[in-house]
């Protein structure tokens, strides 16, 4: 239904689209056992839309000892090819991930940094029935608890050497249950900000610029915290005339094309895969353009 609506709104149809890059919705991510599950039937989508679909983009990476995530780094690299390096691009979705990009083609490192919006969204929904903290307004009214923040930052994930990846449910927030809605929001926002800023500890070289993408960049309180914690300039990726809300979706269209061309979707320095690795499964529509 979402794909059909997208085509309708943009006056597109099957004759104008070569391929859909279909990620699906992740329901569990357990790379330590080679498992990452996404809801979504690529074959069914191809038949319903009449468009060829590339899906199951993480599985080959996992089969070759990779984390299966993050998969957006090569697209990040392509977006800033003409920008001065080194650069860091952070995507703040449910989980936050970063791509460090150096001068050379193979100068790239990527990993999940920690929680993005997921913990904060869950907290806000539980305490206010709102789906998220709009503009960070609730967190702005609270105070971060430094002791609890320190405890959250002791999670074993943060001592792992990248590449590394997370499931949105890897962190527990029970220790915050006694806090007010505002103080809990402030503490979780600070948790996300600190873990993103701490990613710089793993960069091969300091960066000239951080660009922030994803829904988290709309959170004014989070962005203000990042500005205080990050040494280099940081701005929304929209300053490059890109749509910061669409980067991840665009990335999977990009990966679908790379899959069709048998080009790598991931590298040892982006997912920990054994060698540069292509992937994806092609579902050919009976009425779609021949593969």
What does this structure look like?
The protein is α/β, with parallel strands linked by helices. 33% of the residues lie in helices and 16% in strands. The protein has helices at residues 2-9, 42-49, 59-63, 73-79, 118-128, 137-140, 146-152, 181-197, 220-229, 247-260, 268-271, and strands at residues 20-21, 25-30, 35-39, 53-55, 87-92, 95-101, 108-115, 209-213, 234-236, 281-283. The strands form 3 sheets. Strands 7-6-5-8-9 form a 5-stranded mixed beta sheet, sandwiched between helices. It has a 3-stranded mixed beta sheet with strand order 1-4-10. β5 and β6 (95-101) form a beta hairpin. α5 (118-128) packs antiparallel against α8 (181-197). The longest helix has 17 residues, at 181-197. The radius of gyration is 19 Å and the shape is globular. The two termini are 24 Å apart.
Secondary-structure blueprint of this entry?
Layout: H1 2-9, E1 20-21, E2 25-30, E3 35-39, H2 42-49, E4 53-55, H3 59-63, H4 73-79, E5 87-92, E6 95-101, E7 108-115, H5 118-128, H6 137-140, H7 146-152, H8 181-197, E8 209-213, H9 220-229, E9 234-236, H10 247-260, H11 268-271, E10 281-283
Parallel strand pairs: 1-4, 5-8, 8-9
Antiparallel strand pairs: 2-3, 4-10, 5-6, 6-7
